Structure formats: C-alpha cells, structure tokens
Amino acid sequence: MSRQLRVEHQSWPITGGFRISRGAKTAAEIVVAEITDGDATGRGECVPYARYGETVAGVIEDINAHAGALCEGLTREDLQSLMPPGAARNAVDCALWDLDAKMTRKRAWELAGIEALHPLTTAYTLSLDTAENMAAAAGAAAHRPLLKIKLGQDGDGERLRAIRAAAPGLRLIVDANEGWAAGDIEAMFAVCAETGVELVEQPLPAGDDALLETIGHPIPVCADESAHGLASLDAVSGRYDAINIKLDKTGGLTEALALSAAARERGLTVMVGCMLATSLAMAPAMVVAQEAAVVDLDGPLLLTEDRDPGIAFDGSTMSAPPAALWG
Q: The whole model's pTM is what?
C-alpha cells in the first residue's frame, strides 16, 4: 500500500458564538482527512451535523472503515458508490481532489474543466438573536453587499423589519432552518416581500414541505435541509425555486458538481452554501460556486481565526484558494 490515511478532529472557536432556530454553538467542530501518496498529501474538511444524525466520532469511524480501500488507490469515481452522501464522504472526496491536483501539478478546478476561478461575493450571516441585537449587527455589517438572516422563531417579522430599518440599502436573504409553522408561512412570506427579501431558505421542516406545492411564492424559496444529493432532486423540483448545495450534504465536490448541473437543467436557481468551517472547506465549494447565482461561503469570516494560509477575503469578496491550502 503506497498511500497513508490520517483523520483528525479539530475545534475552531466562533467569534461571539452562533445561533440558529435549532440551537447555539461556540465552536466549529470539524473533521480533516489527509491522504498521503509519496511526497503529496491531499486534505479535505467536513462538518458532522447532528441534524442528519452525524457525530464527530461517527464520521471518523466511517472514514477509517474505508482506510484499506483508500490506501490501495481508491479513486474519486469509486468513492461515490462505496460511501453514501454526507460529511464523511465529503472529507475523503475533497482530499482525493486535492491529492490528484498535487500529483498532476494542476489546480483542482482545471481537473473539473474550469480554466480559472473568478472571485466570488459571499453572503454574510447574522446569527439569530433579538430584533434589537440583529438590527445592530446589520448596521455594523452595512459595508457588506448581501446579508443572510437566520430566523425561525417567534418574532421573526419584528426582526426583519428592524434589520431592514437598520440596513435600508443592503440585499437580504433569509434562512428559517425549518423553523416556520405551516399556518404562519404565508404571513411570513408577506413580511419578506415587504422588507425586500430576495430568497427564503427552508421555511418548513423537510418532512412538511409538500405544502410549498400548493401556495404561492412571492419570494423565491430555496431547499436546504430538503436537498442533499442527486437523489433528492425529484422531490425538490416543483416545491422549490432554488437549491442550496453544500458539500457536506452531497458528500463532496464530485456529486456537488453533478447536482449543480442537473439542478440548472431543471430551471432551479443554484445557491452554494457551507457549514461553519475553515477555508479548507470553502476552497472546494468555490469550484462548484462558479456557476451559482447565490454564494454563501462566509464560514471563515465567522471564526476567531482561520487557517494559514487561508482564502483571502476583501470584505465579502473571496479570491481563489492558494495551492498550499487546497487544490
């Protein structure tokens, strides 16, 4: 066996903590997979997510369970049938992309058929809080062109109106994280229209979103928790106007690229999002985000510190990742 596999849990503190409708956290708990072949080492980062039944220990176990195949030369194509979509496969898939880039001396996006990465403007996320505190946070972020507002609890209408008053010129998107009730959704859509919201992510629980087929969408609605890999595309189509592609849900860059192409063929708007993670997780997401209408890759901006080297941010504008980071 010429390859070696190393898997590690890392914890990266979040500036000021982070809260959504399901709870709060103070650190990003991530798993990094490293695959070494000779002098080249490929790295991939993932975020185990409890909403999908994942844990750090479980993801590490899942990756190590395939150590033999990985060390014997498993390819990215083989990986798609060996492991299911999810965080564990994401870390391995992205590590293999990075390893292939290093061994061929090409950038990962060149391997994906993209000549060069252009800079991207990411949304900047405001954590769920009181209306007063969220308005203050929006005012402090007034230099950023696009804000993503975390909602999903009582008082969301008041929060939105306060944020809009504090940041009258900014573009807004909303993420309810499955937190709105069926009986409230049309009223919340009306408030979103009133305050100029451009997109609403996952307003209803994934199991209850069939309702979206029967009500009007004055604001485009984006699937997040309802959208994972290619297998979820049929259910999403007809209910949603857009899809949020995250590599931790698709199980890596390989399926994310395929999902992006398939979604656009069906007329769905593509958003590329992230979990709270470092630049190592954002780098492969930038490849699929080249074709996205909405980019939400602000994870490193919310951390106390990022990797060195990391992706360079000029405000909300991201540059291509350095080769020393990934790809």
A: 0.96
